[in-house]
Each structure stands twice: as C-alpha cells, then as structure tokens.
Design a protein that fits this description.
The structure is a single chain. It is built from three helices and no strands. By secondary structure, the protein is mostly helical. It has one domain. Helix 1 packs antiparallel against helix 2 and helix 2 runs antiparallel to helix 3. The longest helix is centred in the C-terminal third of the chain and has 27 residues. It is flat. InterPro entries: Uncharacterised_PGPGW_TM. It comes from Pseudoalteromonas qingdaonensis.
Length: about 70
C-alpha cells in the first residue's frame, strides 16, 4: 500500500512538472520531488537523483562564479 501511494504521488509530481514545463511554473522542483519519491523504492531512480544533484551543483557554481565577476 505504501509503495503504491509513493508511486502515485511521484506520478502526480511528474505530471505537474510536465504541465509546468509548458506553462510558467516550478517544473524542475516537481520533477525532482517525483524522482526523489521514486528513489525510495527504486535504485535506478537513486542514480538519476545523484546525476541531478551533481548537475545542479555544477550549474549553481557556474552561476555563482559568473555573478561574482560582476
């Protein structure tokens, strides 16, 4: 029951992320929430969470360095 509920919540978050990708909204946040919910039960989702974490960290460092130069 708990796994089914987590999967349903993850699907809802992914759906909201897709909707917000078309209309203005926080699509990345909803995609990450859905992926994190899936990572509780699925090892492949954990791998993608790590990839997202490293990519977002690298992007934030790049943005910080660009903003620090100004």
């Amino acid at each position: 029951m708990k796994k089914w509920l987590m999967n349903a919540a993850a699907a809802l978050c992914f759906l909201l992320g897709l909707i917000f990708a078309v209309v203005p909204g926080p699509s990345v946040i909803f995609f990450l929430i859905g992926l994190t919910l899936l990572a509780v039960h699925y090892p492949l989702a954990r791998k993608y969470v790590r990839v997202c974490q490293t990519t977002l960290t690298r992007g934030c460092r790049l943005l910080d360095s660009k903003l620090a130069k100004k």
